[in-house]
Amino acid sequence: MFIANELRKNNIAEYLLYMWQVEDTIRAFDCQLSRIRREYISQFDYSDEQKEEETDWWGNLIRMMNEEGCRQKGHLTINKVTLWNLEELHKKLLDSTKFPFYSAEYYKVLPFIVELRSRGADKQEDEIETCFNSLYGVMMLRLQKKDISPQTLNAVKEISTFIGMLNDYYLKDRDEPLEF
């Protein structure tokens, strides 16, 4: 909760990736709050009050995952809405002539997006979702200490730059709405 709140304020892209990781963490603990409290939350240097707040937060996420039918796979609605907001902003930025650097960065990463989508299971997913799926996939490979090809590292570097730019526009738009 504490990490998520901080990321949501400062970096919506990292927040979304973090929340996807939280969903997978919940799944890894079989959606059992008692295990998450005992085996995960207890590792943090939190006060008893903070541990209770954190436990409540994880408990609410577990409840939502159960209610929304994403215990095994998929994403919570709160995360889908965040992604949808980023996708909508992406479309507005591309449709406007006021953001040429964003458009240029998009066309630079578009070949990577097309290639990733051609390999993926869901060829209808939005381009921004494809970008996040690739970032998350590489993040998981790194956590598992698996080899990542130079081509994939290059693609992820370019996609990271592009998503970073989208993140910056998101924060600007949130703080003071952009004029398209």
Tell me the number of strands: 0
Beta content comes to under 5%
Q: Over the alpha carbons, how many angstroms does the gyration radius reach?
A: 18 Å
Individual helix count: 8
The share of residues in helices is over 70%
Mean of residue pLDDT values? 94
Structural class based on helices, strands and sheet pairing:
mainly alpha
Q: Name the poorly predicted regions.
A: none
Biggest β-sheet: count, sense, barrel?
none
Distance between the termini: 34 Å
List the secondary-structure elements in sequence, H or E: HHHHHHHH
Task: Please state the overall shape, judged from the principal axes of the Cα atoms.
Answer: globular
Short description:
With 180 residues, the protein is mainly alpha-helical.
What do these coordinates show?
There is one protein chain. The chain has 180 residues and is mainly alpha-helical. It is built from eight helices and no strands. It has helices at 2-10, 12-28, 33-39, 48-68, 77-95, 100-119, 127-143, 150-175. The model has no long low-confidence stretch (mean pLDDT 94).
